[in-house]
Amino acid sequence: MIKVIICGALGRMGRAVAEEIAEDGELELTGAVESPGHPGLGSLLGGVTVTGRLKEVLPAGDVVVDFTNPGAALESIRLCEETGKPIVIGTTGFTPEQLISAERATGTIPLIISPNMSAGVNLLFKVTEDVARTLGDFDVEIVEIHHNRKKDSPSGTAARLADVIEKARP
Predict the structure, then answer these.
(1) Residue 138 DSSP class
(2) What is the 3-state secondary structure (H, E, C) of 81-100?
(3) Most CB contacts within 10 A, which of 26, 34, 74, 155?
């Protein structure tokens, strides 16, 4: 049984991850973390009490999944480094400097940072690189449409697509 802690547990993605954990016989939710002062602190998610401090629940987990914000995610990475816990980051909106800081942890702990966890979108990143390289004389435009509660614009997915295109044809 893999014991999972979710940071950003009461957000859209945090709740979706909690639902997936509940349906998977090999995963167990052992920690749910939200920002200090969040109105949901003390509530239950998947039978786990939501706390405002990752450090409190970190000993109970095998891996941390973070869908928070760049500052909170960097703190989650720091705490995971201290304890040797792997972490998966789905948080977007990092500045280049924050991303470099986060990626330094790869020398210490298993770390995945992805702006989109969908297998299809990750395939799109690869295909986009090939297309951008092959059709170098074409103009490129990225247009995205989201729900009205989208917190980051452009999205992490759109920003990653732009990075892929820029690297393929500087």
Answers:
(1) S
(2) HHHCCCEEECCCCCCHHHHH
(3) 34
- DSSP secondary structure of 44-79: EETTEEEES-HHHHGGG-SEEEE-S-HHHHHHHHHH
**Minimal CA–CA distance to 164: which of 128, 135, 120?**
128
CA 47 to chain centre: 23
Per the CB < 8 A criterion, the answer to whether 1 and 26 are in contact is yes
What pTM does this model have? 0.80
pLDDT tens-digit series, residues 5-43: 999 999 999 999 999 999 999 999 999 999 999 999 999
Q: Cα–Cα distances in Å, from 42 out to 36, 52, 60, 126, 165?
A: 11, 9, 17, 42, 44
Q: Do you find a cis peptide bond into 59, omega within 30 degrees of 0?
A: no
Residue 42 · residue 59 · CB < 8 Å = no
Mind listing the pLDDT tens digit for each residue in 64-92? Answer: 999 999 999 999 999 999 999 999 999 88
Positive or negative: CA dihedral 74, 106, 65, 166? positive
What are the residue numbers of the active site? 146, 150
Residue with tokens 């893999």: 2
